[in-house]
């Protein structure tokens, strides 16, 4: 529990876990953005310390952060006086068995001073075909992204990445994926770039300051059929807050054409939840409504 932290990057918040005494943190790439970003780390007791993002792999959504401050003078954990941070040990994500119990921690809705990271119990369901993601039925919501997934021995086996269509259908970056790229991530390198998604909404988006708005909609496309209109502000994709195209791209990597997702939009004074059946890329682009 002492190793699970909150991360505040600009106006966004997520989670992470300290994995060595020097203050190295594992999290999700979409939580921290690009390398070299200054951020705040929120300790379980609500104390803020400074940190900086290191490397990321946008393709699988892994990222690292380093705490740049020393432990607070009033810190009580063992080794604090010598400048050491509490940390969790990495486990073996390759040996997971379907149905195995796992534990998720994080900061749903963002860190709160009067609430430690809630613990949620679930089961391991599957690896993806490339073994760069694993799926569980642990209940997760926005703010949990980047938080740790533990086995029952208290070892970190994954990092929360993408929240699925249902709260109990979520994707995590396996611990092994971090181990394989440890040196590059710790040096601040961008290991993998987001590849073009094979799915499409049939819309174009325009980014503002902490907002993202629908600029055009393809006639007869997924967004059009779902009732999404030009000028709608996109608030959430499957209950996870979004404000950039990159955040949406990361979420979509978990889905395939014909999957149904929920998009929350703001239209004037109304807030709507619309179900979108994703389309596939390729072929001629339909006429767009401008």
β-sheet strand percentage: 35-45%
Which range best describes the helical content: under 10%, 10-25%, 25-40%, 40-55%, 55-70% or over 70%?
under 10%
Rounded to the nearest angstrom, the distance between the terminal CA atoms is 50 Å
- What name does the CATH topology of the largest domain carry? Thrombin, subunit H
Quantity of strands, as a count:
22
Quickly give the CATH architecture of the largest domain.
Beta Barrel
Main pleated-sheet profile = 6 strands, antiparallel, barrel
| Rg estimate, integer Å | 19 Å
The secondary-structure class comes to: mainly beta
GO biological process, one term: proteolysis
Domain PDZ: 189-269
Keywords: Hydrolase, Protease
Organism: Fimbriiglobus ruber
What does this molecule look like?
One of its GO terms (molecular function) is serine-type endopeptidase activity. It comes from Fimbriiglobus ruber. Belongs to the peptidase S1C family. InterPro entries: PDZ (IPR001478), PDZ_sf (IPR036034), Peptidase_S1_PA (IPR009003), Peptidase_S1_PA_chymotrypsin (IPR043504), Peptidase_S1C (IPR001940). The protein contains five helices and 22 strands. It has 290 residues and is mainly β. 10% of the residues lie in helices and 40% in strands. The strands form five sheets. A six-stranded antiparallel β-barrel has the order 1-2-3-6-5-4. It is globular and about 60 Å long. The model has no long low-confidence stretch (mean pLDDT 87).
């Amino acid at each position: 529990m002492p190793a699970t932290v909150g991360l505040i990057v600009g106006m966004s918040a997520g989670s992470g876990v300290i994995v060595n005494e020097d203050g190295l943190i594992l999290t999700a790439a979409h939580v921290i953005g690009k390398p070299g970003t200054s951020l705040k780390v929120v300790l379980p007791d609500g104390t803020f310390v400074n940190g900086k993002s290191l490397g990321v792999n946008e393709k699988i959504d892994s990222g690292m952060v380093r705490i740049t401050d020393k432990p607070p003078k009033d810190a009580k954990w063992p080794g604090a006086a010598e400048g050491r941070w509490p940390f969790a040990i990495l486990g073996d994500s390759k040996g997971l068995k379907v149905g195995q119990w796992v534990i998720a921690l994080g900061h749903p809705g963002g860190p709160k001073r009067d609430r430690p990271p809630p613990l949620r119990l679930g089961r391991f369901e599957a690896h993806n075909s490339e073994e760069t993601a694993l799926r569980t039925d642990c209940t997760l919501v926005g703010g949990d992204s980047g938080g740790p997934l533990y086995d029952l021995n208290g070892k970190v086996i994954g990092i929360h990445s993408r929240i699925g269509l249902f709260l109990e259908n979520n994707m995590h970056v396996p611990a092994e994926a971090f181990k394989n790229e440890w040196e590059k991530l710790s040096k601040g390198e961008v290991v993998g770039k987001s590849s073009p998604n094979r799915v499409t909404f049939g819309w174009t988006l325009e980014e503002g300051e902490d907002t993202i708005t629908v600029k055009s909609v393809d006639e007869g496309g997924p967004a059009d059929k779902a009732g999404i209109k030009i000028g709608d502000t996109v608030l959430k994709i499957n209950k996870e807050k979004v404000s950039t195209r990159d955040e949406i791209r990361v979420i979509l990597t978990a889905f395939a054409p014909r999957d149904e997702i929920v998009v929350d939009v703001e239209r004037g004074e109304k807030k709507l939840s619309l179900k979108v059946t994703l389309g596939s890329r390729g072929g001629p682009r339909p006429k767009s409504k401008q």
